[in-house]
Automatic annotation (TrEMBL):
Signal peptide (residue range): 1-28
Natural source organism: Cavenderia fasciculata (Slime mold)
Protein name, per record: IPT/TIG domain-containing protein
Taxonomic placement: Eukaryota, Amoebozoa, Evosea, Eumycetozoa, Dictyostelia
Pfam families linked: TIG
CDD domains in the record: IPT_PCSR (cd00603)
Alphabetic keyword roster: Glycoprotein, Signal
InterPro entries: C-type_lectin-like/link_sf (IPR016186), CTDL_fold (IPR016187), Dictyostelium_Tiger (IPR052014), Ig-like_fold (IPR013783), Ig_E-set (IPR014756), IPT_dom (IPR002909)
Chain's gene name: tgrC5
Domain IPT/TIG stretches: 263-338, 570-640, 652-721, 969-1038
Length: 1299
């Protein structure tokens, strides 16, 4: 079933004006060329912003580019857009997009592509897009936005009043690819924006974004891809005004009209007389003062000579004339065509060094005290409800604030308690306020509030529900908000080492944009801090004490509270008593000697002095320095004591002494209490001084040089006046050898005892040879000799009459030389090859002969490369060279490849050796190792002469092993269509073929078969030549057969012409064409040169699957093509009225001229009579469908019909198509009458049920007694229609809808 909906139809009458068809007549719509959007004001208004939004959202406009642009309540984002609308009288008290329903005071767009994006912040007078607010704009809740003919906004519509609705079409297209930007504007400092919707026509990685701004050259923005359809771009700083962003893709482009954010004034330093300087603090001022103009007050007194104190944020100007009785506010700032008026910026009240911010909208006390208190921040200051405390403050507010609609009465921050007044809110809650009034301030109950009349200074107590105005003061003192952790000492709480540290805390009221913030700790001012918003990391100096206050000063004003912290108590890690001093090591000792005291036991340790700040203190030890020691710091809250530590002290104690040589030398004395001053230490051995005392390990080990002696002698150590025990002796020993080892080729180490420390007195022998003591170094228990002569031989070692130890040098190898191939022996040059040397190779002994410095060894058969060991620890590598002697067979290699046997030697592939066979020295070949001297090698397929391969072991190779490939030969051929198979042998890898001297394309090739495409001009007996890598073979036995390559068309009829294309069948050979098994058909020569073409007339009767074949003498190719007769089809049927006998027209292709036996719909009961053939594309007949009911769906929301099937039984086949539909009905107009309603339209034929008319709901009770003609339905009514309404008209299977 059809649904017909009346929609807006668009007719362009100029480049900017379109006509919209709607319920109440034609309205003019306008297209803005900048964005391609269309705007119109609907004929039906709305009483609220929400109803206005709904009125636009279901409308649409189809533009000339095929885009469907859906409607929405207009979103005005730039001054240029508003100017366009004002110029065309489209804004005159009409609803536009904007609401603060989600968050009071934060106005957001409520419709369109910008839906949800912030437009204006009432609290801080911050505009994010375009905000032309009128002076009547309300601080309180509003009911949407109304745009006036002046191009400004109000938000207080009259109750129950109908206002116009401005709808915008564009930005919500059905077709993707129109880019948009978030956020909608950019600060003049520049910033990042996202370009969304880059779909059709854009390659996101190559999109170019071009930016044009006033006063600057157009530039390409720097962009980074975010998603597949969006990118983030940086917009450079600018000086306000419009911005045009052009996006250029690979096949698409777009343009976005936006702007820099308008100027914003947050605070101002006011002045009232001519020539005075006025400073404005805010944002979006740009960088060029010449583009800025400022006026003061409602009369717009000029403020000239604008200068830029800080780019974008601070400007200054000179007041042109006295304000007189004019108010200072509002301030108007214009930058590069963008104008903003500010009614509520904070103004500086110099007498009290505070800022005051007044609101011109009356509010109840709860709103002022609960919604405004502590909700506003001016830079680092939090705002609170201000109390008028002086006549100067009253005068400042009178001169500054704009005149409200009623008397200015200000809510005061106090209320009555026990016949007194205290502050109501803020960090002064409960404190007694500083009061000012022109008369006595009345007392009242605690639920009353107080209003201050600004004009006369009178204070009245009123109900909390009364209306008053609010003034916020930004003058709170700095306030600490404590954390519970110290950074980075997370295991402590505001405790700092005496070296200093950093602590992190939160704070509020930390100052204005130009405030000086200073902290004071330990009586020292510091600005060594980092601040991120209200989080402060303060670095504290070195100090001492507990519960110390940190104060903050903002512009010299002290903080509201203090932050307490402590320095850690001193900690002693060790106490050492030495040389008359007590040395204390630890932490947190600070830096002042004067505050440090030390006690050892109960006795003071005199003259405590810091040796290292914070960590080491030394004092003069008392007589008894053995007691526990404590360090104390005199803190601000009393003594701060450390832990107790027992000192380390006592007489020296000897526990062991190393043995000494009878020749004397260095001895080691182990024990404790030697301390760390070598000058205090003396040693005696048997009562004789042991000189050259040295400290090896502080307090525990010393050495000295003992004199020559014998037997054992007592060792005594004296430290200062403290003498050690005398029960430990040193033993003087004759030399004893326990081992002799070789440490290098010409060095030995002799280990034992009694060698002393002077090698010059020793006699050292090896066998029959003496070793010069000048080559040796003695160290008590060891003797090391280096640089020994090479002619020393093995023998017994002795030192100055000691025991003897046999010793053998390890053999050394300096070089090896293999004999010539087959390398059966090796000559080894080295040293110490005595008679006991038994070389091994491959794990077995091998026969060797030679001298002490040379060996000649013979390898056993089939030896492989490896290590030759002279001794188990001395070896040399032996690497044999592979060699080649013969290859079998020696005949040429077939091009398909073959296997040969290679004979030679040292073909090794064991651990560490890689064996390979390489064709032409580089290409790996397949092989099998048959033995150390035999390989089975697979020569791959190939062709040509002078080939070779080598056998390679690691980096060594044999000589080249040469071979040749066999040449090609042809034995036979076979043809298949246009392809020829050449059979033979040794065709190689890449053969080429010519037939009759013409190159033939090779389709595939093996060593014995080549498949080629026969050239079109080939003869039946042409010569075939196969060439491969310089070798060739020829063949003369080629015979070709005729071939059909195509038949066209494959469907034919009515004696249409069919063309056959063939090869190898010239007209001179008298070819014949057959269709299936019928006799040959007459043919016509179309082309007498290859490819040859012949044509014939197809049969005129119906036929399917006829085979076409070509005959040439006794040679024929059959079943090479199949043709069928032409196939008819139905494409459309005209729509008859429902249940009325009427003619229909059937259109299609290849419709038969005769032989149609039956045409019907659904089944044979519903026939179409009087069949008339018009042409092969048109047939008419008379349809009798009186009893054919067309089913339709009524399941919501679908209300429509599927097409029915029409059938045609013809001479060849029955064809059908799902294209049959009844004629629909449609409504063109509805005319309400006094007591009836007339519905105009077409297709009103209701043969069975008559018309069914319902209003607003198709399921409601139909209107009774409706009469109709084919163009009009009239129904009586007993009530008047109210707009808007929807008419539903049903008849048969159709329903028409009119809105």
């Amino acid at each position: 079933m059809f649904i017909t909906t009346t929609k807006k139809s668009i007719l362009f009458i100029s480049t900017v004006i379109v006509l919209l068809g709607c319920l109440n007549g034609a309205l003019a719509g306008y297209v803005w060329s900048t964005n391609g959007h269309m705007y119109d004001v609907g004929s039906t208004g709305a009483t609220s912003s929400e109803l206005a939004r709904r009125a636009c959202q279901n409308n649409y406009w189809d533009d000339s580019n095929g885009n469907r642009l859906w409607g929405y309540l207009a979103t005005i984002t730039t001054k240029a857009e508003m100017d366009f609308l004002v110029a065309r009288s489209l804004v005159s008290n009409v609803w536009v997009s904007g609401s603060d329903d989600k968050e009071q005071g934060i106005w957001r767009y409520s419709s369109g592509p910008e839906s949800g994006e912030v437009m204006y912040d009432v609290f801080n007078e911050k505009c994010y897009t375009y905000c032309p607010l009128s002076s009547a704009f309300s601080f309180a809740d509003g009911n949407g936005l109304l745009a006036s003919s002046a191009g400004t906004y109000t938000n207080e519509p009259a109750a129950s009043t109908v206002y116009g609705v401005l709808c915008e079409y564009g930005g919500l297209e059905t077709k993707l690819g129109s880019p948009r930007m978030v956020p909608l504007t950019v600060p003049t400092e520049g910033g990042f924006v996202k370009l969304l919707g880059l779909a059709t026509g854009y390659l996101i990685d190559s999109v170019v974004v071009s930016v044009a701004t006033p006063g600057f050259a157009t530039y390409n923005a720097k962009c980074n891809r975010v998603t597949s359809v969006s990118t983030e771009c940086y917009i450079n700083p600018g000086n306000g005004g419009a911005i045009t962003i052009a996006t250029i893709g690979d096949t698409g482009s777009g343009s976005i009209a936006t702007a820099y954010e308008p100027p914003q004034v947050s605070a101002v330093y006011p002045a009232y007389t001519s020539g005075s300087l006025i400073t404005l603090v805010g944002s979006n001022f740009g960088t060029s003062a010449s583009l800025i103009s400022v006026t003061i007050g409602s009369t717009n007194i000029a403020c000239n000579t604008v200068t830029m104190l800080e780019a974008h944020n601070v400007i200054r100007c000179t007041l042109a004339s006295n304000l007189g009785s004019n108010k200072f506010l509002p301030i108007t700032v214009t930058l590069n065509g963008q104008t903003r008026k500010f009614f509520h910026p904070a103004t500086y009240f110099a007498s009290a060094n505070i800022f005051l911010k007044g609101f011109t909208i009356p509010m109840i006390s709860d709103y002022a005290f609960k919604r405004l208190e502590n909700k506003f921040q001016l830079f680092g200051q939090t705002g609170g409800i201000a109390t008028v405390f002086s006549a100067d403050m009253q005068t400042h507010l009178i001169n500054t604030l704009p005149t409200p609609s009623s008397a200015y009465k200000l809510w005061q921050n106090y209320y009555s308690v026990n016949n007194g007044l205290v502050h109501l809110v803020g960090n002064v809650l409960g404190a007694v306020p500083q009061l000012y009034s022109s008369s006595s301030i009345p007392q009242g109950s605690s639920y009353l509030r107080y209003l201050f009349t600004l004009s006369n200074g009178q204070v009245d107590n009123v109900s909390p529900d009364s209306l008053g105005y609010a003034v916020l003061g930004f003058s709170e003192n700095f306030e600490f908000i404590k954390n519970d952790k110290l950074h980075p000492y997370d295991d402590q709480s505001y405790v700092c080492p005496t070296t200093g540290c950093s602590i992190n805390f939160l704070a509020k009221n930390y100052g204005l944009w130009n405030s000086a913030l200073v902290f004071n700790a330990m009586g020292v001012d510091t600005t060594n801090f980092d601040r991120n918003q209200n989080s402060i990391m303060l670095t504290l100096p070195a100090g001492y004490g507990t519960n110390l206050p940190i104060k903050a000063y903002v512009d010299g004003k002290s903080s509201y509270n203090t932050l307490l912290y402590s320095y850690a108590a001193p900690i002693i890690n060790s106490v050492v008593v030495s040389n008359g001093y007590v040395t204390i090591t630890g932490t947190n000792f600070y830096t002042l000697n004067s505050i440090i005291s030390v006690t050892v036991g109960s006795v003071s340790c005199a003259s405590p002095t810091l040796i290292s700040l914070h960590t080491v203190v030394r004092c003069i030890a008392p007589a008894d320095a053995t007691q526990a020691t404590r360090l104390t710091i005199a803190g601000n809250e009393g003594a701060i004591q450390s832990n107790l530590v027992i000192p380390t002290l006592g007489n020296p104690r000897v526990t062991s002494v190393s043995a000494a040589s009878v020749f004397g030398g260095v001895i080691s004395i182990n024990g404790y209490n030697y301390f760390s001053t070598v000058a205090d230490i003396s040693v005696t051995v048997g009562g004789v001084a042991c000189p050259s005392v040295a400290i090896v390990t502080a307090n525990t080990q010393i050495t000295c040089v003992a004199p020559a002696s014998a037997g054992s002698k007592v060792v005594v150590v004296t430290v200062s006046t403290r003498v050690s025990n005398s029960d430990i002796s040193v033993v003087f020993q004759s030399p004893t050898i326990t081992s002799v080892t070789q440490t290098a080729s010409n060095a030995i180490s002799i280990v034992g005892n009694g060698f002393g420390t002077n090698a010059a007195v020793l006699t050292i022998t090896l066998g029959a040879s003496s070793i010069s003591s000048a080559l040796c170094t003695a160290a008590g228990s060891s003797l090391t000799c280096t640089g020994l002569p090479t002619n020393l031989v093995n023998g017994l070692v002795s030192v100055s009459g000691s025991n003897t130890i046999p010793f053998k040098f390890n053999p050394t190898i300096t070089s090896t030389t293999l004999s010539a191939s087959p390398q059966s022996q090796v000559t080894i040059i080295g040293n110490h090859f005595d008679s006991g040397v038994v070389p091994t190779f491959g794990g077995a002994a091998i026969p060797c002969t030679g001298t002490y410095t040379q060996l000649v060894c013979i390898f056993v058969a089939d030896s492989v490369s490896g290590s030759l060991f002279v001794t188990p620890s001395v070896s040399t590598p032996i690497v044999f060279d592979p060699f080649f002697t013969a290859m079998n067979p020696t005949t040429d290699v077939p091009t398909a490849g073959s296997t040969v046997i290679v004979q030679g030697g040292h073909f090794e592939n064991h651990s560490g050796y890689t064996l390979s066979v390489l064709l032409q020295g580089t290409v790996p070949m397949t092989f099998t190792k048959l033995g150390l001297g035999f390989l089975s090698v697979v020569i791959p397929a190939g062709s040509g002469n002078n080939k070779y391969f080598v056998v390679k072991v690691n980096s060594k190779t044999t000589a080249n092993i040469a071979f040749n490939y066999a040449g090609p030969s042809i034995t036979s051929t076979k043809t298949s269509g246009e392809q020829l198979a050449i059979i033979g042998d040794n065709f190689g890898l890449s053969p080429t073929v010519t037939i009759g001297g013409t190159s033939a394309s090779v389709l595939s090739a093996t060593s014995n078969t080549i498949l080629v495409t026969i050239p079109a001009n080939a003869g039946q007996t042409d010569l075939i030549v196969v060439s491969s890598n310089g070798q060739s073979a020829s063949y003369t036995g080629l015979t070709l057969h005729p071939l059909i390559t195509s038949v066209s068309p494959l469907r034919a009829g009515g004696s249409s012409v069919v063309t056959v294309t063939s090869a190898y069948a010239p007209p001179s050979a008298s070819p014949s064409i057959y269709i299936s098994s019928a006799p040959p058909v007459p043919l016509t020569i179309v082309s007498a040169t290859s490819p040859y073409k012949y044509s014939f007339n197809a049969p005129s009767s119906c036929f399917t699957g006829r085979l076409v074949s070509l005959s040439l003498g006794s040679s024929s190719i059959s079943s090479v093509g199949i043709i069928n007769s032409l196939q008819p089809s139905i494409t459309s049927v005209s729509n008859p009225p429902f249940q009325i006998i009427s003619p229909i027209t059937i259109t299609g292709v290849n419709l038969p001229a005769s032989g149609i036996s039956l045409i019907y719909v659904s089944d044979t009961r519903y026939k179409c009579n009087d069949i008339q053939y018009i042409s092969d594309t048109t047939i008419t007949c008379s349809f009798d469908g009186l009893n054919l009911h067309h089913p339709y769906q009524t399941i919501s929301p679908v209300y429509g019909d599927p097409p029915l099937t029409i059938y045609m039984e013809g001479p060849c086949t029955t064809i059908s198509a799902n294209v049959f539909k009844y004629q629909p009905i449609s409504i063109t107009n509805v005319i309400p009458m006094y007591n009836s309603i007339e519905i105009k339209g077409t297709g009103f034929i209701f043969k069975v049920t008559g018309p069914v008319v319902t209003i607003d709901d198709p399921t409601s009770t139909p209107l009774p007694d409706c009469s109709y003609t084919t163009t009009t339905v009239t129904c009586p009514m007993t009530y008047q229609l109210m707009t808007p309404y929807v008419i539903y008209l049903e008849g048969g299977p159709y329903r028409a809808i009119y809105e």
